Amino acid sequence: MKKRLTMIAAALIAAVLAAVPVRAEGWKLDNTGWWWQDEDGSWPAGEWRWLDGNGDGTEECYYFGPDGYLLTGTVTPDGYTVNGDGAWTEQGAVCTRQVPLYGPAADGGVSAQEAHAALPAYDAPVTEENIMALLDNLDPDGARILRDAAISPSAAYNPLMGWWNGAARITDALSTAVHEECHIAGFSDNSFIRRSYYVGGGYVVLDKTPVFDSQEMIGTIPQSLRTFRFDTYLGSTAPANMASRCEGPYGLLDEYNAYCWGTNNELKTFDYCMRSGKRAWSNSWLAQAEFRYYILRYMLYARDYHPDVYQGILNNYSFRQAFTMVDTRFEAVVRELHQKLPDYAIQFAKGEYDALMAEMEKPEYQEMRALLRP
After folding, report:
1. DSSP type of residue 86
2. Closest by alpha carbon to 154, among 195, 184, 191?
3. 170-to-121, 272, 339 alpha-carbon distances in Å
4. pTM, 2 dp
5. What is the pLDDT of residues 254-307, one digit of tens each?
6. Cα(310)–Cα(301) distance, rounded to whole angstroms?
7. CB 164 within 8 Å of CB 177
8. Closest by alpha carbon to 201, among 240, 143, 154, 244?
9. In the CATH scheme, what is the homologous superfamily, with its name and number, of domain 26-99?
């Protein structure tokens, strides 16, 4: 009798355990195919999902059909290519991103699973949700910049949606927004002494040293090297209180940095835009040569005419660190973007770019650039 009761108890326990669903997060396989199960027992269906299935800190993006099964070796309903493993690819390369934390630090962040993972359509409504969804998927640096700008002391004066101003598509003003919000994110306090530069994953923060008005040195810039941005930032139309003038190389670096991340956004969203029919491209990449030149030209002028200012800047390790990080990143972005852009999008500014780069091949510029390395 005791043995019989024991067997009945064991059977009841087994039945109870069988009735409890196994809800471990991860990939699942059945006779139909692969699917992904979330921790709560649900699964994605009819949507994209960034997943780090093997826990290596890198996510790939997968599309799950309406039935919840992974699509492999095909083109998804919204026109993207996935390989035999189901991972989203561009030009044969698997698209990846590092596992991110979303939201300002004050919020504690949310997990990647809780983030909006689906890419919005090219003509999706211009809303903050769709803007951030696009950035979270394609340009995490741009997403970080916009979120940091939202908690900046000057955020109230530059609302995010103001950059679109009635634009029909998210991408119509996206790189401009990243550029402008980069200025706002770097405004770390109201002292006008401290400045922060986003350098990818974090900031270089520094205290500015004495400078002179950048316009003082423009007589040393030949007419042949005065591109269309020259007047805006240094020449006749540049107001005296513009940072590129009144903050010398610190303000020039702020512009250099903003153009870097705005151009990086164009690179990261290029394939998305091309697939959607975009054919008009900016020449923000030209700013890589322009602002490198302006900063080096300022330093050479300061060395000759303002030695105290020159030495103060050169002794500012954080400035040299920020300049070198921005300079290196922007150069890499332009190199990669030029491999993607059609010839017509490069040729109309290539002459100016080549002239500036050739000028900076001269020994005095090369020596100054080396001195600015930390």
Report:
1. S
2. 184
3. 9, 12, 24
4. 0.70
5. 999 999 999 999 999 999 988 877 778 899 999 999 999 999 999 999 999 999
6. 9
7. yes
8. 143
9. Cholin Binding (2.10.270.10)
Return the structure tokens found at 127: 């809303």
Contact call for residues 335 and 346 (beta carbons, < 8 A): no
Average pLDDT over residues 177-202: 84
167, 125 Cβ separation under 8 angstroms: no
φ, ψ of residue 59 to 5 degrees: the values are -100, 145
| Per-residue pLDDT reduced to its tens digit, 119-158 | 888 889 999 999 999 999 999 999 999 999 988 776 656 6
Give domain limits for the chain. Answer: 26-99, 128-371
Q: Could you write out the three-class secondary structure of 8-46?
A: HHHHHHHHHHHHCCCCCCEEEECCCCEEEECCCCCCCCC
Taking each helix axis from N to C end, the angle separating 174-185 and 140-150, rounded to the nearest 10 degrees, works out to: 50
Burial of 286 (0-12, 13-18, 19+ CB in 10 A): buried
> What are the angstrom distances between the C-alpha of 17 and each of 14, 22, 100, 109, 231?
5, 9, 36, 35, 75
Q: Give the type of residue at 3.
A: K
Extract the tokens encoding 187: 């405004």
